[in-house]
Amino acid sequence: MTQSPVPSPEPLKRTPLHDVHVALGARMVPFAGFEMPVSYPSGISSEHRAVREDVGVFDVSHMGEFEVTGSDRNAFVQRVTCNDVGALKPGQAQYSGILTKAGTFVDDCLVYRFEDKLMMVVNASNIQTDWDHILDQKGGADVRLRDISDETALLAVQGPKAEGLIGQLTSLGLAMIPYYHFAQGKVAGAQCFVSRTGYTGEDGFELYCRAGDAEKLWHALVGAGRAEPAGLGARDTLRLEAGLPLYGNDIDDTSTPYEAGLAFIVKLDKGAPFTGLEALKKQKLEGVRRRLVGFKVSEPKAVARHGYPVFLDGKQVDVVRSGTVTPTVNAAIGTTYLPKDRAQSGTKIEIDIRGKKVAAEVVKMPFVPHRTKK
């Protein structure tokens, strides 16, 4: 009997900067269907510190971008996301969620409002799922949806010196762009839109440009006397310290915004029904049963990693959602869900680290204060 051939896995996609990362000696790893730089030769701690103290640049071109045009565009995105698109003026962005009917996350996203269109930015691992979920709700709406992920590159320039660095390369008045706002113009000769957003807790900008312009933009930003390249490893330690959720870890299709501490993205009274509205109304009325909390491991050299079992009063209540040692906190920290009545600072928990139960304590998030420009 002949064996049927094993289907080969999908080949990994590459961002437009793949060859640049390889030339820099980056350690490349599979992530969300892409081959991505996890770190460069200077190492995660150095990259992390560059962003906290100076400036670092991340290639996050793997992220997904959907463009929404047509006369019903605002009403349509209002229906498929839980925050209030009606509150956005052109040139503004908002953090939001794409939800199931049960009020749980299909994904978290950013929504950008332009004069003539909206753009949704989604996680790379969820591009197809999100696209299908959004398309399913199109009905007879006068909207045109385009997945522009492959033609769009995205560089995140993060850290206290980000504004000074980009300012040398553009005539845009960066100081006049408030947090979660954006402007359009040229940076280092590349047409971009420049958004004062990020995923590190530091001030910084995200630069969206055409894929073909990414290399020119990268070389203008990164190098001696400019920014340090930073990979996914530092991106993870920075966002965890800042208490920012990662889809697939801290939030997923079993958790709601209320449970994850993201009530601020839910606008029940925005005047338009949205997917998940009824379930979230009910949950708000009845109250959540669990909440996402941050913790610090009490024992030196013990690291709580994603998936390790978490115990409260000797009984397993969840697993570690995110967990690692981070350079600024200089300790093993992480997140998990606890029953609501115990989800407060000072609660003692135990984590099973390779067969040994190790003590940890709930602490307030974020672990490191945000320094974003308000």
Task: Explain the layout of strands and helices.
Layout: E1 13-14, H1 18-23, E2 27-31, E3 34-39, H2 44-53, E4 56-59, E5 64-69, H3 73-80, E6 92-99, E7 105-113, E8 118-122, H4 127-135, E9 144-147, E10 152-158, H5 162-167, E11 182-187, E12 190-195, E13 204-210, H6 214-221, E14 228-230, H7 232-241, H8 277-286, E15 290-297, E16 309-312, E17 315-319, E18 322-326, E19 331-339, E20 348-353, E21 356-363
Parallel strand pairs: 1-3, 4-14
Antiparallel strand pairs: 2-3, 4-10, 5-8, 5-9, 6-7, 7-8, 10-13, 11-12, 12-13, 15-19, 15-21, 16-17, 16-20, 18-19, 20-21
Characterise the protein shown here.
With 374 residues, the protein is α+β, with helices and mostly antiparallel strands. It contains 8 helices and 21 strands. It has helices at residues 18-23, 44-53, 73-80, 127-135, 162-167, 214-221, 232-241, 277-286, and strands at 13-14, 27-31, 34-39, 56-59, 64-69, 92-99, 105-113, 118-122, 144-147, 152-158, 182-187, 190-195, 204-210, 228-230, 290-297, 309-312, 315-319, 322-326, 331-339, 348-353, 356-363. Helix 2 crosses helix 7. It is globular and about 60 Å long. It starts with 12 loop residues before the first strand and ends in an 11-residue tail after the last strand.
